[in-house]
């Protein structure tokens, strides 16, 4: 009988890169995180078992449960390993732009608010590890499984609310409904860039890549800023 967590065929992922560790258990933990990140990004949370992850990490089949307790806790560890520093930087940049605006007695600049929220995330794609995580984050943003939705809300809510508050202050002429839709467009663009599903590269041909974080900042950011800063659609601003 097939094990309930064992897939019908082996899943593949890039071989996790070994990191120097002072304790063997720490090295195993890092390999599990690398393998989980790659497999979740490639196949989705629901289609990967802890046994798949242990096999890709060259670890004991029970290693994932030993180090993390559950698959859901492992997914959270994967997210927090990358996101804690990114969210801290987003929060710091938001604090800076809000403080500068308050000192000058004006609303925060739309460009500064978007730069604080979007840029740290897009810059992650410049490294192999960051690009792999961006693929996972992009996929997870539309994952319907309750475990993934709970995690996405938990790890993004605090900084997300800070961004909404800052955007509200930066766009005082917008109704709440219009601000909602403009922020939806910002999120949509950011998630599509991070998901990097190859569709645009297919349409444009070789030489283009959504993993080019600096290109995204150079070309996509002015577009997003212009959209957020545009006059209200109803003309009442």
CATH topology of the largest domain: Tetracycline Repressor, domain 2
Summed over residues and divided by their number, the pLDDT gives a mean of: 88
Give the C-alpha Rg: 20 Å
SS summary, helix count? 10
Q: CATH architecture of the largest domain, please?
A: Orthogonal Bundle
H/E element order: HHHHHHHHHH
Report the top-level CATH class of the largest domain: Mainly Alpha
How would you name the oligomeric state of the polypeptide chains in this document? Answer: single chain
CATH H-level superfamily of the largest domain: Tetracycline Repressor, domain 2
How does the overall form come out from the CA principal axes? globular
What class do helices, strands and sheet pairing give? mainly alpha
The rounded distance between the terminal residues' Cα atoms is 66 Å
Which bin fits the share of residues in helices?
55-70%
What about the largest sheet? none
Would you count the extended β strands for me? 0
Counting structural domains, the number is 2
Residue stretches low in confidence (pLDDT < 50, at least 5 long) are 1-10, 13-22
Q: Strand-residue fraction?
A: under 5%
Pfam family, one: TetR_N
GO molecular function, one term: transcription cis-regulatory region binding
Protein name: HTH tetR-type domain-containing protein
Organism: Rhodoplanes elegans
